[in-house]
Amino acid sequence: MNQWEQRSRRLFWPLFGVAATAILGAAGWGLWQLRKPADPAVDPLAKLTVPVTSANLTVKIDASGTIRPIQTVNLSPKTSGRLLELYVEQGDAVQKGQVIARMDDAELRAQLARAQAGLARAQARLAEAQTGNRPEEIAEAEARVNRSRADVVSAQARLDLARERLERNRSLAEAGVIERDRLDGFEQEARSAKADVDRAKAALVESQKGRDRIRNGSRIEDIAAARADVAEARAQMALIQTQLNDTVVRAPFAGFISQKYAEPGSFVTPTTSASSGSGATSTSIAALASGLEVLARVPEVDIGQIKLGQTVEITADAYPDRVFRGRVKLVAPEAIRERDVTSFEVRVAILSGQEVLRSGMNVDLVFVGDRLPQAVVVPTVAVVTDRGRTGVLVPNATQKPEFRAVVLGPTLGNQVQVLQGIKPGDRVFTDLPPGQTLDSILNNKAKPGNGRSANP
User: The domain 133-217: what is its CATH number?
Assistant: First the structure.
């Protein structure tokens, strides 16, 4: 036998004795506990009921929400085109009216130059109509009248000669000296001379009218038409200038660039979301946002306790150890119903933490409501319903559960305020005695079963 075996034998028996003694002692203690009489001071309802208490409480309503900008807009040009320059980056702070981007305006500048030239021509015509004609123009018109008058005199002389020949040859024809065909020629000559006189007289009348117009200057109608041409040219130029100004995209309000959607060279178009600003579009240039607020949804059952100006405690997932302050700024007048759940949107102004909170963060909210001095409260699990009546179970004279109707106030976490029906010091059941069910208690008949919570 080696030294290790000898030492093992010496250690085994003492340890065995200790273990056996411990086992026997435990068995003896257990038998003593079984035979020990019950403590008469232990209340058999202590584990099934709790006392009704009162305390100074503050109503608090929990909700969740999302941080979002107070105002946001997607910036886009008023007309389609290619983005020439972009002057901002995501996160940049901008002021109202600051230039954000510039569109390609080469074609509009060419149109503006043509419009300016058209305006200059219209203005020149108006000036000419308003100032009248020069002396040399009047002299030339007078000369045309004189030439026309001379043409009339010459034509009249030819007509007189033709008529004289016609009369002389008509007498000869009647005497049989000349043939009828020759007389016809003289008649044709007279008719032609008469037509020349008529044309010369008409030309004289027109030249006289032209001379008179030049002497008197332009007519009122001509001046009015020239003025209308000038106004039209100015309107066309103003339209093109407006389109040219619209190629410069400016910030409509002060804020920060929350998103950038385009780069120089991109083709962008007007978008309807430029006014609403709730969604990003591939045709926008950038998104501009201003300020932060919390958009929360409060269940219908709690909305009556939410008031304008109410204090709100805000906790963000990104900063779980910090509580930020807020204030209710708007309660939506219309409910939202999703998946059979009715709730109301509540907008909360952020009073602290703007330097660290970011748009899109998820937050938990606690709406701090009214203070309830010495409010009587019971656990929510103690509340039961009997045929439409709300109440609690209290011990009767025989210490058995008995239904008592109550009037409830707001729920405070796992407790609910009781406005009427019980008082501090009363006890209410939170669990049922063995062998009883809620139905058997409410119907006053016993049914076998295990004890369970009083809350159905």
Answer: 1.10.287
Q: Mean pLDDT score of the chain, rounded to an integer?
A: 82
Residues 6+ apart with CB under 8 A from 61: 298, 302, 305, 306, 366, 367, 369
- What pLDDT digit, counting tens, does each position of 200-246 carry? 999 999 998 888 777 666 567 778 888 999 999 999 999 999 999 99
Structure tokens at 355: 């330097």
Structure token digits, residue 192: 């032609």
Per-residue model confidence (pLDDT) at position 83: 92
Half-sphere exposure of residue 265: CA atoms within 13 angstroms, side-chain side: 1
User: Considering only CA atoms, which of 69, 62, 58, 59 is closest in space to residue 364?
Assistant: 62
Among 319, 332, 325, residue whose Cα is nearest residue 358: 319
Phi and psi at 16, nearest 5°, equal -60, -40
Q: pTM score, two decimals?
A: 0.54
Give the neighbor-by-neighbor strand order of the sheet with 401-405: 383-386, 389-395, 401-405
Burial profile 158-178: b = 16 or more Cβ within 10 angstroms, e = fewer:
bbeebeeebeebeeebeeeee
Q: Where are the domains of the chain?
A: 49-58+374-442, 133-217
Residues 6+ positions from 305 with CB-CB distance below 8 Å: 59, 61, 367, 369, 370, 410
| Residues near 244 by beta carbon (within 8 Å), at least 6 away in sequence | 105, 108, 109, 112
Residue listed under structure tokens 């049914």: 447
Structure tokens at 431: 């669990």
CATH entry, 49-58+374-442, from 3.40.50.150, 2.40.420.20, 3.30.70.1270, 3.40.50.720: 2.40.420.20
Q: Return the C-alpha torsion angle 92, 98, 104, 105, nearest 10.
A: 180
Tell the residue number behind the tokens 């709100």, with chain if given: 312
Please say if the pLDDT value at position 142 is more than 90.
no
Query: Phi, psi (5° rounding) for residue 39?
Result: -75, 115
48 backbone dihedrals φ, ψ, rounded to 5°: -105, -15
Q: How far apart are CA 351 and CA 358, in angstroms?
A: 14
387, 398, 389: which is closest to 421 by C-alpha? 389
Provide the token pair at 87. 């002057």
